[in-house]
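Quick one, tokens below:
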């Protein structure tokens, strides 16, 4: 067993998340999408449901975690893509060669 590997790994993980979501959503209102989760919490707060709307009767409003994690996650994902994958794309490879050539030229002039 273990972690699924190979070309079907993403499909299996997606099916697993869909099964978890479809089994818990009718019972608990599970929302894995922060936009879907925050919208309903905001409407409940505007309808004056009290502290339970955003916090779920806890000390900390956990909806903030899903919103900030999404924000920092897409920044980290974009940075990782540009450094790890985008660097090796053909368009970027030509630009990287030109930049390296300019740096070498500058260093040779000194």
């Amino acid at each position: 067993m273990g972690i699924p590997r190979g070309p079907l790994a993403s499909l299996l993980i997606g099916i697993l998340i869909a099964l978890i979501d479809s089994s818990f959503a009718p019972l608990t209102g599970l929302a894995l999408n922060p936009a879907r989760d925050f919208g309903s919490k905001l409407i409940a707060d505007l309808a004056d449901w009290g502290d339970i709307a955003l916090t779920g009767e806890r000390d900390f409003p956990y909806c903030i975690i899903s919103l900030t994690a999404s924000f920092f996650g897409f920044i980290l994902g974009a940075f990782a893509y540009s450094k790890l994958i985008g660097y090796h794309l053909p368009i970027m490879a030509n630009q990287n060669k030109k930049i390296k050539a300019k740096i070498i030229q500058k260093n040779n002039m000194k």
